[in-house]
């Protein structure tokens, strides 16, 4: 990870427990030094970022280097979360990757207009998910230079 910390933190917001498990397994298969934290909805994601509620311990809720964000979640959906993150001067630099089952052009345009860094449709099978996570890891943590 070229001059970066040995392990990077990804925060994933997705209400589908199975998707979270598959991403965790895909990251393990990819052998990238990534620590994955998973929250189940937009409110929980914002609590994590603001260190509220269950996430007051900064050691257990480190600032993510990247956020994987599902659009369709209960309580606060991905679009609302994206809008809040990108309007906050303390958070807007964190890259937000939309990772969703939606392929609707409206969702793609809307999320990019709100500041999403990428829009990815969830792969249909595990092998494709592993390849996608390897590519994501290589791009965001080896090729791109992110602010500390």
Distance between the termini: 13 Å
**Total DSSP E strands:** 5
Structural class, please? Answer: alpha/beta
Q: Do you know the CATH architecture?
A: 3-Layer(aba) Sandwich
Describe the strand arrangement of the main beta sheet, using strand numbers. 2-1-3-4-5
Which fold name corresponds to the CATH topology? Rossmann fold
Estimate the helix proportion, in percent.
25-40%
Radius of gyration: 14 Å
Number of domains: 1
Account of the protein in words:
This protein has about 150 residues and is α/β, with parallel strands linked by helices. It has one domain: Rossmann fold (3-Layer(aba) Sandwich). Helix content is about 40%, strand content about 15%. The protein has helices at about 15-30, 40-50, 80-85, 105-115, 125-145, and strands spanning about 10-15, 35-40, 65-70, 95-100, 120. Strands 2-1-3-4-5 form a 5-stranded parallel beta sheet, sandwiched between helices. Helix 4 (about 105-115) links the parallel strand 4 and strand 5. The two termini are about 15 Å apart. About 30% of the residues are buried. Residues about 1-5 have low confidence and may be disordered.
């Amino acid at each position: 990870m070229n001059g970066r910390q040995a392990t990077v933190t990804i925060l994933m917001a997705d209400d589908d427990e199975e998707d979270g498990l598959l991403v965790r397994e895909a990251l393990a298969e990819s052998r990238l030094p990534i620590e994955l934290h998973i929250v189940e909805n937009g409110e929980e994601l914002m609590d994590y970022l603001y260190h509220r509620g269950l996430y007051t311990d900064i050691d257990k809720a480190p600032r993510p280097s990247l956020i994987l964000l599902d659009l369709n979640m209960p309580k606060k959906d991905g679009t609302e979360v994206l809008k809040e993150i990108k309007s906050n001067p303390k958070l807007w630099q964190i890259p937000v990757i939309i990772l969703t089952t939606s392929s609707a052009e409206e969702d793609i345009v809307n999320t990019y207009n709100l500041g999403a860094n990428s829009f990815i449709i969830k792969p249909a099978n595990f092998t494709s998910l592993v390849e996608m996570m390897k590519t994501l890891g290589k791009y965001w943590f080896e090729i791109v230079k992110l602010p500390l």
